[in-house]
Specification:
The protein is α+β, with helices and mostly antiparallel strands. Among the domains are: 179 residues, Glutaredoxin, CATH 3.40.30; 87 residues, Immunoglobulin-like. It is 25% helix and 21% strand. It is built from eleven helices and 19 strands. The strands form five sheets. Strands 9-10-1-12-11 form a five-stranded mixed β-sheet, covered by helices on one side. A five-stranded mixed β-sheet has the order 2-3-4-7-5. It has a four-stranded antiparallel β-sheet with strand order 16-15-18-19, with no helix packed on it. β15 and β16 form a beta hairpin. The radius of gyration is 24 Å and the shape is globular. Bound molecules: zinc ion. The site of zinc ion has 6 residues, from α4 and α5.
Length: 507
């Protein structure tokens, strides 16, 4: 039941239905692998807590020993530190940590209503500032199981090494927001198999507490590069990207959803994702809508983003690359999990087509509106999964159950015919931004950089063979001087087409 109208660009997208979530945790990766992956990416690991909970020493390990200690103004936190040696910390960083910790208590407990964590032996929560080298921080529970578990935090002493993509005070802020939330979480329940959802929660808290810092942006490409992977797949970096699922539920249903799910989790062990979903469903949502919203938000990021739709910071997120689907071609992904495969189809013809179907026939639920508006969903819930196969045209797109949003995909030239830019990372960037260009046929590529006023500040030309190529820009202008902080537009041109991407340079 395809409907063809007229079109410029056409995508095909498969949505995978919702089924046995619990089985997905079996796919958690090895912590060692995760570490290697991160090191290869050139960045430190956001959080060592998942490694900590896998450690056989948990519960018997000694706390770090540091010579000095200072108490926070509220009396609730002790920061342990050293003034010299490998772990040396400057006094001002200690004072900053103490005041951030007191603010985190006010935010997370007094304002957001989370339960104060259970006291350790002296009733003061401890933070140890050590040279962790590869980790921003970690939270160590003092017992390896059960409810009401007390814990302490170990955080990096100075966040200055090159592996820390977010540095100094900003790194200290998001790390303490993240790790203190782990302390609260272990106070509810310690359940190592759910650790990926602990990470989701703490990444989400980073953004609640410090909306402007955005360290989590560095991890997002691990989702946008492989959106077809199961939502609950964990490998030490992916769970920091799929935290966007919780960002979405917060935006749809408010931040209390997260706390209520944790309270449910405290009274009954189980799957935290199911509890997040249960709260949304009790708030009037349904799984079909949540799945299709996740899909739609995931597609409209970066240059495809539309103000007012999707994640608040969607314009800064990486984009899902849409490879070309050959006629009659098939995609497969693991059934039973939320994941999605996106592709574009050739030739470009028709405006919008949408269908939902199982293995045999189109379902009557397929929603296609005249005038080029598409409704996603519903997906059927149950043991079987159904793909939603949507061709999104150049005109518009409507989400079920919400006001109509109009997307003008053409405006952005997101899908030039002979090359695709993807994986622009990190963005915003500090010293260097890189991107990949997949070229269908070899030939000339020209790169232009414009500043926010539209002035050309950089130009380079390459002749490249077909395939995938990585390019980078070190933030310098044509004359070699470092460019000022701000927004730049990267424009890539081949003889036949062009595409643009927004880059943001921070000092
Ligand atoms: Zn964490």
């Amino acid at each position: 039941m395809w409907r063809n109208l007229s079109i410029l660009h056409r995508y095909v997208v498969f949505l995978f239905g919702f089924a046995s979530i619990a089985a997905a945790s079996a796919f958690a990766g090895e912590p060692g692998e995760a570490l290697i992956e991160h090191v290869c990416n050139g960045g430190a690991v956001r959080c060592g807590t998942p490694s900590v909970v896998q450690s056989p020493l948990l519960g018997v390990e000694q706390r770090p020993v540091l010579p000095l200690v200072k108490r926070s103004p509220s009396g609730r936190f002790d920061v342990h530190y050293a003034r010299s040696g490998d772990d040396a910390t400057v006094e001002t960083a200690v004072d900053s940590a103490l005041s951030i910790l007191d603010r985190m208590w006010e935010l997370q407990i007094d304002q957001m209503g989370y339960r104060p964590p259970p006291p350790d032996q002296d009733g003061v929560i401890d933070v140890y500032m050590k040279n962790l080298r590869l980790f921003y921080g970690m939270t160590v529970p003092e017992q390896p199981g059960g409810r009401g578990v007390a814990s302490y935090m170990v955080i990096e002493n100075d966040f200055q090494e090159p592996v820390f993509l977010t540095k100094g005070l900003d790194a200290l802020r998001v790390t303490l927001a993240h790790e203190f939330f782990h302390v609260i979480q272990f106070g509810y329940r310690y359940a190592p198999l759910q650790i990926g959802r602990y990470e989701w929660s703490s990444v989400w808290m980073e953004d609640v507490a410090f909306d402007d810092i955005n360290d989590y942006h560095y991890y997002l490409s691990t989702y946008f590069q492989d959106p077809q992977e199961p939502l609950l797949r964990e490998n030490g970096s992916r769970e920091y990207a799929t935290a966007l699922f919780l960002f979405m539920l917060d935006q749809l249903h408010g931040p209390d959803l997260v706390r209520q799910a944790w309270e449910r989790f405290e009274s009954r062990p189980g799957n935290l994702l199911e509890y997040f979903l249960l709260e949304a469903v009790e708030n009037g949502d349904n799984l079909e809508n949540i799945a299709s919203t996740w899909f739609a938000w995931s597609l409209f990021t970066g240059l495809r983003s539309v103000p007012g739709f999707g994640w608040e910071e969607a314009a800064w997120y990486p984009m899902i690359e849409l490879p070309t689907l050959s006629p009659g071609g098939q995609y497969s992904a693991e059934a039973g999990y939320w994941g999605m495969v996106a592709a574009r189809t050739e030739p470009f013809a028709g405006e919008i087509e949408v269908s939902l179907y199982d293995s045999t026939e189109a379902l009557p639920a397929a929603a296609v509106e005249d005038g080029g508006e598409v409704q996603f969903g519903p997906l059927r819930q149950g043991r079987e999964w159904y793909g939603a196969n949507a061709f999104i045209g150049a005109v518009s797109f409507q989400r079920v159950g919400a006001k109509t949003m109009v997307f003008n995909l053409d405006e952005f030239s997101v899908l030039p015919s002979d090359f695709i830019i993807s994986s622009v990372w990190p963005n915003p960037f500090n010293e260097r931004v890189q991107w990949e260009v997949t070229v269908v046929e070899g030939g000339k590529l020209r790169f232009f950089l414009y500043d926010v006023l539209g002035r050309e500040v950089f130009f380079h030309r390459y002749v490249v063979p077909a395939g995938r190529h990585t390019f980078f820009w070190d933030g310098r202008l044509q004359d070699g001087r470092p460019g000022p902080s701000g927004v730049y537009i990267l424009r890539v041109m081949s003889p036949d087409s062009q595409a643009a991407h927004r880059l943001v340079k921070l000092r």
